[in-house]
Amino acid sequence: xxxxxxxxxxxxxxxxxxxxxxxxxxxxxxxxxxxxxxxxxxxxxxxxxxxxxxxxxxxxxxxxxxxxxxxxxxxxxxxxxxxxxxxxxxxxxxxxxxxxxxxxxxxxxxxxxxxxxxxxxxxxxxxxxxxxxxxxxxxxxxxxxxxxxxxxxxxxxxxxxxxxxxxxxxxxxxxxxxxxxxxxxxxxxxxxxxxxxxxxxxxxxxxxxxxxxxxxxxxxxxxxxxxxxxxxxxxxxxxxxxxxxxxxxxxxxxxxxxxxxxxxxxxxxxxxxxxxxxxxxxxxxxxxxxxxxxxxxxxxxxxxxxxxxxxxxxxxxxxxxxxxxxxxxxxxxxxxxxxxxxxxxxxxxxxxxxxxxxxxxxxxxxxxxxxxxxxxxxxxxxxxxxxxxxxxxxxxxxxxxxxxxxxxx
Length: 409
Fold this sequence. Notes:
It is a single chain. This protein is α/β, with parallel strands linked by helices. The chain has 3 domains: 5-111 and 242-310, FAD/NAD(P)-binding domain (3-Layer(bba) Sandwich); 125-239, FAD/NAD(P)-binding domain; 329-407, Enolase-like, domain 1. The protein is built from 11 helices and 27 strands. The strands form 7 sheets. Strands 3-2-1-7-20 form a 5-stranded parallel β-sheet. Strand 10 (147-150), helix 5 (154-165) and strand 11 form a beta-alpha-beta unit. The model has no long low-confidence stretch (mean pLDDT 97).
């Protein structure tokens, strides 16, 4: 029997590597350790269909309990790994147990960024990243009368769409001057902001929250830097995440904005890999610079890459990043990394809500943002993966055959 693999973290990346190892014929022991007291589940629906009540928890599960038994995956839930003993090749758990490994995979993910604000601990201040947080938020949303969202990124906007569909008033406070500024081009950002405004969402841009105001132990509003106070009995804080690197750092592994790995997703210790939201890796689609990506695609593709290596088929990680967000009637799909683009070409009908933005730096296509145009997204992924050259003029020309460009050999 092959040597045991231990996986710390049972979200998308952790589950996928366990499943991929068995799929590829790995016959050794696999132990999957998660700190949540439930079976591994999908996170994207939390901010959409699960929050709105359209689906139940059973629809979130990666696989039913029987899957883990049938595939000989020892699943340990509700348990934290407290220490990595690299010399002894074992991890220690918070229940006092020790689990030996031949290879250790860190899929520790990330946690909510919690701002050091007065009143941040008040009841009614919520987050939206895991199942428990979502269930708390769903309960509070059902009785909320005034809602403030801090942060206009994917999660904040997805929540706002669900809240407005339930006819709840929503006011979003954003530090910069537009929605999704970190991840989306100006045309995409402007369109999403306008549609949310039309649905009734209020925005305050260029504003900083300086405190959360309470009455008793409950939230009553947020105070802005200019002295204004926005009333609220529910505040969602959605200002990004922090990678969980402490376990790796305490074991002497290199960490920064993520656990540092090479292009095979290995740390400096040849017996320890890191994957998913916690890993900072040299990204082929980011000029080889270190990137830490927060997406299900990246988590799953990282896992498959490491699984290949562990069954004797090593290769560098080169997968194209892609992302998506569903906000009411709007579906945003992003292929590639558009960070640092200096030009954009629009294809389609912005006014009609169906268009794509091709983002360039110089003559190089960095990525494509598609709004309600799934075919464009599929073609863009092929084009970017194959590194085919499409000019901004071609991208903007409705007569240009994007499908032919994507399928060319």
